[in-house]
Design brief:
Layout lengths: L1 H12 L6 H22 L16 H10 L4 H19 L6 H14 L1 H4 L3 H27 L4 H38 L5
Length: 192
Amino acid sequence: MRQTAAIRTNSLSKTSRWNPQTRQLLNVLVTVGSAFFCLLLLPTRFPGMTLLGIAPNWMLIWVVAWSVKRTAFQGGVAGLALGLLQDSMTSPHPTHALSLALAGILTAWLQKDRFVQEDFISVSLIVFGMTVVVETVATLQFSLLGYNTLAEIWTRHQLVALSSAILSSLWAPVVYFPLNRWWEQIKNPESV
C-alpha cells in the first residue's frame, strides 16, 4: 500500500518538472479527450447502466465537472460547444446546446463551496438539479417545435427527467473526480 502511494506521488510530482508547454498541451488533450469520451458514451447502453431505457447524461456530467470551478462564461461556452456536438449526433434541430449552456452558467454561479463542502454529495446534487433543468429546457423546445402533443411530451418529460437525474447524479463522481484532480494538478503542480 505504501509503495503504491509512493509511486503515485512520485509520478504525479514529476508534472511539476514538465515544460509549461508540455503541461498545457497534455491538459488540452486530457480535457478534449475526456469530452469526446463522454460524447461517445452517449449512445452506448451498457447492461445495468440504464433505468427504464434512459442512460446517464454524460455531456451534462462533463459540463458540470468543468463549470464547478470556472466562470459562468467558461461554463456557458463549454455547454454550448458540447451541446452542439451532441446535437450533431442526435437531432437536426439544436435541442441540447441551449440547455447545456444554461447548465454550465448556472453551475458556475452556484459557488458550491458556500453551500456544501463534501465534493461527492455536492457534485451529485448539482448534477441532479441540472439534469432536471436540462430536460425541462429540452422539453420546452420540443413542445415549441411541435413534436407530438403537449400532453405526450410532458408525460414523457417526467420519466426522462427523473430517470436521467438519478443515473447522472450517481455516475457524476466517476467523471468529476479524475478530471478535477487532473485540473488541480495542472493548475498547481507543486502542491501535489
